[in-house]
């Protein structure tokens, strides 16, 4: 396996080091190339994502990213110039974010064994496509438009992937989350595509939920969800709440997938570079290790992925209440559990 690693800034390198410990324990034959991208490179050289680096990234089987960002970089520069650019250039159209509440994990819904869902968020369209602009800027007549782009092609491939995932899961249940009553045009397209694709998956039960109601149910009745399919913006919101009710930021993993496998997919913890705790050795690397499990699944190594997940489940169930432990100690424990 040829893996490109972008450790990034802040706690990024710290959690990535532990993730790689676990990965190389499970799959010894990994060929790793490390790329220096993020806030520190931007400060040093003004570069965000040189074309030569993008070309090299394409030559790998997958990418592992820690986190990028620093308070000294103006908002938006790294997000647009690096993270979103990678997602668009490598056509990461499925943003995959599982949320499962493991036994032993604290949080607002601790102990709720029914939380085991996966959000399939569209990753390259919606309001994030960059269609829009400002007219008559800095005048009382200023106009700002932010157009949500929804193509049949873009919606269909994401909906299809969500059905495939639902069909492989025990519950075989899929919920479309949207706001079809108000966002009627895109809502129609999404609903129609879900209906169409559902014909090919007769074993999958289909439900629909408005985004606002979904936010209530995620807290009051999360067990109703199995696979959620949704657009880019709603998916961004849903996955933060799903993370909050399933153990928080230290446990939220994600995959930015090109499910056509033309380009390498990218796996990363949902959290950022956490400058407030960087260097203290207290960052929880579990979200990064869970992202490694997603990576192994994507590359067709489900047995290894299950071993990594089982290691995490065991570790979470046996952690000292209220204490994560040192970053390296968690990594050592998970690596030992996963490779034993
Ligand atoms: P953040 O996720 O970095 O931190 C939020 C809070 O959660 C902080 O109190 C932090 O200490 C804590 N936290 C985060 N990850 C943790 C972990 N693994 N273990 C224990 N505690 C953890 O979000 P914030 O503070 O809004 O952003 C910090 C920087 O990260 C910004 O520059 C932001 O732009 C960037 N960022 C980068 C992302 C990425 O690379 N994909 C995603 C989100 C933010
Ligand atoms: Mg977010």
Automatic annotation (TrEMBL):
The record's annotation in InterPro entries points to: ICDH/IPMDH, IsoCit/isopropylmalate_DH_CS, IsoPropMal-DH-like_dom, LeuB_actb
**Which keywords accompany this UniProt record?**
Amino-acid biosynthesis, Branched-chain amino acid biosynthesis, Cytoplasm, Leucine biosynthesis, Magnesium, Manganese, Metal-binding, NAD, Oxidoreductase
Question: Which residues are tagged with the site Important for catalysis?
Answer: 128, 179
Q: Which reaction(s) does its UniProt entry say it catalyses?
A: (2R,3S)-3-isopropylmalate + NAD(+) = 4-methyl-2-oxopentanoate + CO2 + NADH
* Subcellular location field: Cytoplasm
Where Mg(2+) binds, per the record, is at: 212, 236, 240
- Pathways per UniProt: Amino-acid biosynthesis; L-leucine biosynthesis; L-leucine from 3-methyl-2-oxobutanoate: step 3/4
List, separated by semicolons, the cofactors it needs: Mn(2+); Mg(2+)
> What is the enzyme's main class?
oxidoreductase
Does the keyword section mention Plastid? no
- Return the cofactor note field: Binds 1 Mg(2+) or Mn(2+) ion per subunit.
Give any Gene Ontology cellular component: cytoplasm
Gene Ontology terms, MF aspect: 3-isopropylmalate dehydrogenase activity; magnesium ion binding; NAD binding
Q: Where is the Isopropylmalate dehydrogenase-like domain?
A: 2-334
Q: Which residues bind NAD(+)?
A: 272-284
Q: Where does substrate bind?
A: 87, 97, 121, 212
Subunit-level organization: Homodimer.
Q: Its family?
A: Belongs to the isocitrate and isopropylmalate dehydrogenases family. LeuB type 2 subfamily.
PANTHER family xref list: D-MALATE DEHYDROGENASE [DECARBOXYLATING]
Job description of the protein: Catalyzes the oxidation of 3-carboxy-2-hydroxy-4-methylpentanoate (3-isopropylmalate) to 3-carboxy-4-methyl-2-oxopentanoate. The product decarboxylates to 4-methyl-2 oxopentanoate.
Q: What is this protein called?
A: 3-isopropylmalate dehydrogenase
User: Which taxonomic lineage is given here?
Assistant: Bacteria, Bacillati, Actinomycetota, Actinomycetes, Nakamurellales
């Amino acid at each position: 396996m040829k893996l490109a690693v972008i450790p990034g800034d802040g706690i990024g390198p710290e959690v990535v080091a532990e993730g790689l410990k676990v990965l190389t324990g499970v799959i010894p034959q990994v060929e790793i190339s490390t790329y220096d991208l993020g806030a520190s490179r931007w400060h040093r050289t003004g570069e965000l994502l040189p074309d030569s680096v993008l070309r090299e990234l394409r030559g790998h089987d997958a990418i592992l990213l820690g986190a990028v960002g620093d308070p000294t970089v103006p908002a938006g520069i790294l997000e647009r110039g690096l993270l979103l650019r990678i997602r668009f250039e490598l056509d990461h159209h499925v943003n995959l974010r599982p949320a499962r509440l493991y036994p032993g994990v604290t949080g607002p819904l601790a102990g709720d064994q029914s939380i085991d869902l996966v959000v399939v968020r569209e990753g390259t369209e919606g309001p994030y496509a960059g269609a829009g602009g400002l007219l008559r800027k800095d005048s009382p007549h200023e106009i700002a438009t932010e157009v949500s782009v929804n193509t049949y092609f873009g919606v269909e491939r994401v909906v299809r992937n969500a059905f495939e995932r639902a069909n492989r899961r025990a519950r075989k249940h899929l919920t479309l989350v949207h706001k079809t009553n108000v966002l009627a045009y895109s809502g129609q397209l999404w609903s129609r595509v879900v209906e169409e694709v559902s014909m090919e998956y007769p074993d999958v039960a289909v439900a629909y939920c408005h985004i606002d109601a979904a936010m209530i149910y995620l807290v009051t009745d999360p067990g109703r969800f199995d696979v959620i399919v949704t657009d880019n913006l709603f998916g961004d919101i849903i996955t933060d709440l799903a993370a909050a009710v399933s153990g928080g930021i230290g446990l939220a993993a994600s995959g930015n997938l090109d499910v056509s496998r033309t380009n390498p997919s990218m796996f990363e913890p949902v959290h950022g570079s956490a400058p407030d705790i960087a260097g203290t050795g207290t960052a929880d690397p579990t979200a990064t290790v869970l992202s490694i499990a997603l990576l192994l699944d994507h590359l067709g190594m489900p047995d290894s992925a299950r071993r990594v997940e089982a290691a995490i489940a065991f570790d979470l169930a046996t952690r000292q209440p209220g204490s994560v432990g040192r970053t390296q100690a968690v990594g050592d424990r998970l690596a030992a559990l996963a490779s034993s």
